[in-house]
Specification:
This protein is α+β, with helices and mostly antiparallel strands. The protein has 15 helices and 21 strands. About 30% of the residues lie in helices and about 25% in strands. About 50% of the residues are buried. Bound molecules: flavin-adenine dinucleotide. Flavin-adenine dinucleotide binds next to β4, α3 and β11.
Length: about 450
């Protein structure tokens, strides 16, 4: 039994990384084994509480908030099995991507692609379709080959492409709404080295050449500060060169002092003097020089984020990306939004998880951010209106204003997800206010036994 497993114990308040999503769950559980996890969920069910799993709390939306029982996965953080020949790695759900990457590297393995931080839990990352960039590379959930879920009654269920395929299609990007993931098996690749090049380039040319740049590199993305006509491009390609890790001082100077502290100071200046943001943004863009690094993939992909902000991100059919970027920048100019943060533009290959934001289509991703303490709603609403017109799907872990009614038609497999949800969690135990809005109530329908006959075990 975990030290906080008393179901009557009131928890301290919980908040997300950005500090702007707060909740006070009735109970908090921190199971240290799958048996404790099952018992915690069964207990919550017995007392009629809704249950939300939480990973590292790095979502910007209220997706992880719980008004009932909260199950924190951070004690379930072990790597359970590594098969270097097949690349299959089984890990507990709460392990952070950074810890996992370090363990993989020790075995000569790596994740094929990652986002730009590595502190999320693996289960939290896959549950929201967290992604990196790479037009030929899929999001992290697409690397999953098997999942072990704990269901509302505390029983466990294993799903994979061979076993309960329909559940697997739903559970890979499950939004915490189907059950709690206890274990994940991932397909990993041999460890690799990346040559990373950061370089400014004219924005107009970058947008014109977007397809070519996205398809011609392993990982291409760019940032653009509003009011500046320069794209800060980031191009990472695999190389056979030996890694040349930076000294601790060089890494600290760049990743902490410049990218975070100096940038944070400029954001604070912009918050105090919003009229100066266009000049500040042009200054930051001018200061961003060209730099090159060769290092292990995980070290190139992820960097620390110390400046607090909130974010919205939309996935679009990739061909609409340049047009969408132009329209967002125009909206900022025309509506006079004060935006001291850059827009980030990435690509991801299609996959087949029912609620993956890249389900069935080559996708471009456009992320907009707002510094803490600044008004984000009018800006994000204006961006969302543009994304709505272009068939956008919101990142599940980031802010948006959509509801089940506005989202349903954007996902060909929406009803399949809802059918699995109704079967696995007919009483809506894994719902919260966010899922009430975004997924709607659990559809009335079949019970668990009819679908997963033989696979649910105690
Ligand atoms: C600074 C920053 C940078 C980011 N960069 C990127 C990026 O590059 N690319 C990108 O795509 N996203 C990015 N994100 C978003 C982030 O990856 C997602 O929001 C991710 O879901 C966070 O993982 P987490 O472990 O913190 O999950 P949480 O926020 O704790 O939870 C997210 C969801 O997962 C569910 N969940 C968690 N654990 C389990 C479990 N064991 N079983 C079932 N459900 C579970 C929760 O219930 C919730 O629904 C970034 C976020 C921040 C704050």
């Amino acid at each position: 039994m975990s030290e906080t497993s008393d179901p009557h114990q009131h928890s301290p308040r919980w908040q997300n990384w950005a500090g702007d999503q707060l909740c006070t769950p009735v109970t908090v559980q921190r199971p240290g084994s799958i048996e404790e996890l099952s018992a915690a969920i069964a207990r919550a069910g017995d007392s009629g509480q809704r249950v939300r799993a939480v990973g590292a709390g790095h979502s910007f939306s209220e997706i992880a908030c719980s008004e009932g029982a909260q199950v924190r996965l951070d004690r379930l953080s072990r790597v359970l099995d590594v098969d270097t020949s097949s690349g299959l790695v089984r890990a507990q759900a709460g392990i952070t991507i950074g810890d996992l990457s370090r363990r993989l590297d020790a075995h000569g393995l790596a994740m094929e692609n990652l986002g730009d931080i590595d502190v999320q839990s693996i289960a939290g990352a896959i549950s929201t379709a967290t992604h990196g960039t790479g037009a030929r590379l899929r999001n992290i959930s697409a690397q999953v080959v098997e999942l072990t879920l704990v269901l509302a009654d505390g029983s466990t269920l294993v799903c994979s492409p061979e076993r309960d395929q329909e559940i697997f299609g739903a559970a890979r990007v499950g939004l915490g709404a189907l059950g709690v993931i206890a274990e994940v098996t991932l397909h990993c690749v041999p460890a690799f080295t990346l040559r990373g090049l950061d370089a400014p380039a004219p924005l107009a040319q970058t947008l014109e050449r977007f397809e070519e740049l996205a398809l011609g590199n392993d990982h291409f993305e760019f940032f653009v500060f509003p009011h500046a006509d320069v794209a800060l491009t980031r191009t990472n390609n695999r190389t056979d060169e030996p890694p040349k890790p930076r000294s601790r001082l060089a890494a600290y100077t760049n990743d902490v002092l410049l990218t975070n502290h100096a940038f944070g100071l400029l954001c604070r200046a912009g918050r105090r003097l919003p009229g100066r943001i266009p000049q500040i943004n042009r200054l930051v863009t001018r200061l961003a020089g060209r730099s090159e690094r060769v290092d292990r993939s995980a070290a190139i992909f992820a960097s620390p984020r110390l400046v607090r902000f909130t974010e919205m991100e939309y996935a679009l059919p990739r061909e609409h990306t340049p047009q969408a970027v132009r329209r967002v920048l125009e909206a900022i100019e025309q509506r006079g939004f004060a935006v001291p943060f850059p827009i980030e533009v990435r690509t991801v290959a299609p996959d087949d998880a029912f609620l993956s934001t890249a389900a069935g289509r080559d996708s471009g991703y456009i992320a907009v951010h707002m510094f803490e303490g600044m008004q984000w709603q009018p800006y994000f609403r204006a961006v969302e209106a543009i994304m709505d017109e272009l068939g956008g799907r919101p990142h599940w872990g980031k802010r948006h204003f959509q509801t089940a009614d506005t989202l349903r038609a954007r996902y060909p497999d929406w009803e399949r997800f809802q059918a699995v949800r109704a079967r696995l969690d007919p009483r809506g135990r894994f719902a919260n206010e966010w899922t009430d809005r975004v997924l709607g109530p659990v559809a009335e329908g079949s019970a668990l036994g009819s679908v997963v006959e033989g696979s649910a075990g105690g």
